[in-house]
Amino acid sequence: MRIRVVTPVTASEFSEGAQAIRDILAAARSDDHVDHVQIERGPASIENEYEEAMAVPDTLRCIVEAERDGVDGVVINCMGDPGLYAARQLVSIPVVGPYQAAGHMACTLGHRFSVVTVVDSVVPMFWDRAAVYGFRPSLASVRVVDIAVLDLEANRDRMTDRIVEEATVAVREDGADTIVFGCTGMAGVAQRVAERLSARGLDVPVIDPAPAALKLCELLVEMRWSQSRRAFPTPGPKAMPGYPDLVAFPRAGR
Amino acid sequence: MRIRVVTPVTASEFSEGAQAIRDILAAARSDDHVDHVQIERGPASIENEYEEAMAVPDTLRCIVEAERDGVDGVVINCMGDPGLYAARQLVSIPVVGPYQAAGHMACTLGHRFSVVTVVDSVVPMFWDRAAVYGFRPSLASVRVVDIAVLDLEANRDRMTDRIVEEATVAVREDGADTIVFGCTGMAGVAQRVAERLSARGLDVPVIDPAPAALKLCELLVEMRWSQSRRAFPTPGPKAMPGYPDLVAFPRAGR
Amino acid sequence: MRIRVVTPVTASEFSEGAQAIRDILAAARSDDHVDHVQIERGPASIENEYEEAMAVPDTLRCIVEAERDGVDGVVINCMGDPGLYAARQLVSIPVVGPYQAAGHMACTLGHRFSVVTVVDSVVPMFWDRAAVYGFRPSLASVRVVDIAVLDLEANRDRMTDRIVEEATVAVREDGADTIVFGCTGMAGVAQRVAERLSARGLDVPVIDPAPAALKLCELLVEMRWSQSRRAFPTPGPKAMPGYPDLVAFPRAGR
Amino acid sequence: MRIRVVTPVTASEFSEGAQAIRDILAAARSDDHVDHVQIERGPASIENEYEEAMAVPDTLRCIVEAERDGVDGVVINCMGDPGLYAARQLVSIPVVGPYQAAGHMACTLGHRFSVVTVVDSVVPMFWDRAAVYGFRPSLASVRVVDIAVLDLEANRDRMTDRIVEEATVAVREDGADTIVFGCTGMAGVAQRVAERLSARGLDVPVIDPAPAALKLCELLVEMRWSQSRRAFPTPGPKAMPGYPDLVAFPRAGR
Amino acid sequence: MRIRVVTPVTASEFSEGAQAIRDILAAARSDDHVDHVQIERGPASIENEYEEAMAVPDTLRCIVEAERDGVDGVVINCMGDPGLYAARQLVSIPVVGPYQAAGHMACTLGHRFSVVTVVDSVVPMFWDRAAVYGFRPSLASVRVVDIAVLDLEANRDRMTDRIVEEATVAVREDGADTIVFGCTGMAGVAQRVAERLSARGLDVPVIDPAPAALKLCELLVEMRWSQSRRAFPTPGPKAMPGYPDLVAFPRAGR
Amino acid sequence: MRIRVVTPVTASEFSEGAQAIRDILAAARSDDHVDHVQIERGPASIENEYEEAMAVPDTLRCIVEAERDGVDGVVINCMGDPGLYAARQLVSIPVVGPYQAAGHMACTLGHRFSVVTVVDSVVPMFWDRAAVYGFRPSLASVRVVDIAVLDLEANRDRMTDRIVEEATVAVREDGADTIVFGCTGMAGVAQRVAERLSARGLDVPVIDPAPAALKLCELLVEMRWSQSRRAFPTPGPKAMPGYPDLVAFPRAGR
After folding, report:
1. SS3 letters for E105-157?
2. Rounded to a whole number, what is the distance in Å from the CA of F100 to chain D's nearest CA?
3. Which fold has domain B99-209?
4. Where exactly are the structural domains of chain A?
5. Domain C3-97+211-246 is of which CATH architecture?
6. Taken in order F204, F208, F213, F214, is the CA torsion positive or negative?
7. What pLDDT shows up at residue A150?
8. Fold of domain C99-208
9. Interface present between D and C (3 or more CB pairs within 8 Å)
10. Which residues in chain D have their CB less than 8 angstroms from residue B177's CB?
11. Disulfide check for C177: which of A180, B228, B237, E168 has CB 3.0–4.6 Å away?
């Protein structure tokens, strides 16, 4: 089995072996079958609808390449799940988005979950996508630590403190019984957050979304399940000026 | 007042003064204040999530240019509303999407509406966006005429016949009391469809979405209303390799 | 084009050229094609279900008269939309209610809106009608300034202050990104409220519902759209003791 | 205990001891404490939003009179529940509407119910009110026998046949497990309909709404429960030109 | 008419003529036709999903016995409605659960109700069952007095104080206009709670669920209505090792 | 890692190495860490609410024993998920139910799924639980093959044919894009059903729920995630006459 993590942002913080990716591999005990690529064109990080949209074309290129490389499944390494549905139309291997994966997983562990994410500008995206993914009734709240994505790595302690604070409010006031991190850049502190919440008497699962997505992807590969072709039909051939890398869609043999 | 229609597809059928655009202008009695541009990079037409995603970057460029040109409002000329929310973050002038506009307008004319669109592959997109836009409970059904977008112009009569057939089923079996065209390429036959439905005893409004969006845009400009900045916050400056045209975001003075 | 505003209350404050009506006309730049009538039988103002119900019969008479007078469209000048669905069954010209119009318009400008209205006794009506109109999921909250309808005119400054206060809470605590006034008697201060909210860092559209309804009505007339006859079927002839003015329904030729 | 049935239509078929009322009394074994009045101003029967609206003012007069007469509870004898919420604001005794009562009662007997009613023009009213009453998710379908209200009495056998036919489709195709009659004029045949459905292997409760409302009203009187004053606040005094009978609201001592 | 109250807990507090039962009988003016049994195997009280599940087998035995004894209807005396749907499959007489009955009754008295119950561990059960029963949109909140079931009897005054406190918050902050007690062990203080809330200006109905269920059961018996056999089909014969008392299902003659 | 499959029915067909269990182990490539137990008291099979309720006490005993035996996670081998929430309160190791697991997994592969199950009497249970689990909006339909659970093993070919037939209707008419088997007794034919659907042009994932649950359980164990203690609080000590095996709850050290 080979899984590829596609990071849909161009900031070098992510490419130079950021802690997030290392944590993902460690969590998965999957060092031997997971590799990682990063897009070359697109936003440094994703913190709004605009940046997410701009990340999609090159993310799709990376995912199509992954299938051509014989990879068995792909995880998009961003809680905005950029290009998730478009990518599923282009490849047969399973494509997993961390928000969709972590959200549904949270639904199997409790009644209502809260997302604790980075900044205000991404909050509406979580609500909108929850409506599309079908778990909006189970989403108790979306709270922010108010730290930009690219500042997370340099502020791990403050980030952790703030996550604990907001998760505490989510459980006590918003009625959440499960916490989902709202940025894959928060990877690696879930265990610590869970312990500190538990010390406050709040025994709730804390879901790190990138590992959740990676493990779900492994599960799908093992079970030979993939996204529904009926739900995500293969596009026919069509001119696409300005995007020569993607002109070969759809692949023969679909 | 100046309104710009941005067509987010590259097929020349659309650029050479297609009937759709002429109909839009005529319907709006707005020939003097509406102009039209078309993207240069992106799909020939939009019939799935993939093509829609690929249309967004150049659509955003056109919309930012429109504001710089002093235009007062923009209509995205495609029922997929590609880039709608991203564009709203980038400009202050109102940006209107035909699906969102026509859907909410249909809600003010009846209890439940059906979309009659082109092909199966776009059906899930209408349901998903209805969930985001908030009118999913009012969406009775999404039906298809099974004619590709780029074949509509050459098959106006068959297209009209098929729309009438599917709209009839939508009203009789799905409980719709209002019909919304599911492709801006269908523009211009709404009146004829309404008359033929009426001849069958089905008196229902038939909404042509591009004119609906254009007129809503005019209304917003006249009232000096625009999208909520709170809902669509302006992105901060950020590196965007590969997209030099868009690097100047956000504009000064926001 | 001729539009008629029907005010469904009998208080003279409204009939003697109240500021609300003047503002509507000014906002619409429509002084030349909008006229105004007021009911003669019914409540002085509408602040509960009872008063709304009592306003309906004479409102219907006025709307039927409007069509007989050759008017092209009607706006009911009250956020309770009294008689909206009944009137639509009686005439072919479009009949627009401010709450339905402003609510759906708000949905096209943001994700969630709040209504700021007069007094507690009308709050349940906004929730109930939101369920009927289909936008209940997008309604963040209904807040009150606690000033009776007939006291608004004499307390414009306090009214404006209170609207700003409640709108601030709606945005900060209830998650609204758009504000809709909950009484057509609040007409005329939307611009001022928006500026004061903006000065607090809250950039949200503020929708004055009567102008919103008037402009939507103009749009429908221009597009020759009207309410769905399928949704609002014409009543057959039937005895109606006690209401001789209305006995001629339905009109010939429907 | 004294209960008053208020019939909100003026047709003499209802006033001259129609079978419906006799059935109600018999079903309730309540002949000794139920009386009956009928409005004097308003529609002969109610088959659309217009007629329902016109029935309300005199219905309110009758309900206020009922309380002044010392009656303990009121049932509005029409499935449109005309004036239900307005009346509740005007009196302290419980006011019960057959649709609300029968709908919630159906919810306690099965998972999903269907309404079988008279004609197409009332169908949207059942859906709209289900949204307000909160049981829209439990409403499987609304089906019609296509017989006008005033023709029901002269066509009892055909009415019964048609109810059985539509109820059969409701159970087999729409997933209903409980049937609610959609017109109080259908009173008296519920037992027969249930037996014929049972003979087809469809064992479902068949709810006659007027008796359901009457028995719920008795229950409320016995338990000394009434509508929430918080939900239905008492109107303050206010001018009401054209309706002298109602001018004395609100009563002293509330 | 004979109604049997089945108490699905084994604590002797309940069996020795607890105030709750006496209140139920008094409230119902039904002393002559209501009797009471209590399960012999199962939890002392029910305060979580586990205890509720363990109460079901013996509750079913009691309900089947009730039908064999010729009883006309059964009320399960616990707000968790343990075994409600299973019991309905086993008998033809109506089986009523206090939560379902009181919840739907509350829906007929106002717009939104709150449950005031015993301890945190039962809160999710109220939300879950509201989803199944269909009234989740009408459930404003679930609040707790933080007194264990078996301590209620010894702390009637503190219990009443706490109910008043939580009900006050439910009305003022959660938007409830009706209160439902969330434990049948709270029976008997509804009138007092309502008076104290009224003294605070909060005029809301306070529903005691066991009497509500008992009166609804009487109503169903009088109307000869029972649960839908279509919704709750009779099980066929099947081996059931370990539960000899229940082996005779289904009864002949069904 | 050790996972235990608890089969909550007593029929020997299941205990003697039924194909279902073997398939589960094969699918999981988990033969070395999965064992299997079966309850001793309870129904032969589960086809209604009654039988499900009767299966719960001994299922809980088995799950508590599993934790005492040092097992790392438990799968309840029945699509009714009997005792799922109660069991979660009693143990700290993850307890997974096939319906909840497979339903949420289906949501990550498409837009809407259908359940194809055994007999009519279980259909309402799937709808009810979908409401509790939060995925009711994504459940397109529940269809039945009309073969009793205990007859599945002897009729594998007919079962497969019938599943294909009903799944075809689910996709073509109900709008499903993903199929979930509605009985763990159907295990082992998913691949064959998917191929036959694909031969009909219906490319949809076919989810075998027991393996889905087993793999999700492995994932949770690997990630050290378990159900939320906040959502499923540990019961305190309490008398439980008639169930001596369970009297030791809660375990020390929780």
Report:
1. HHHCCCCCEEEEECCHHHHHHHHHHHHHHCCHHHEEEEEECCCCHHHHHHHHH
2. 20
3. Rossmann fold (3.40.50)
4. 3-97+211-246, 99-209
5. 3-Layer(aba) Sandwich (3.40)
6. negative
7. 87
8. Rossmann fold (3.40.50)
9. yes
10. 124
11. B228
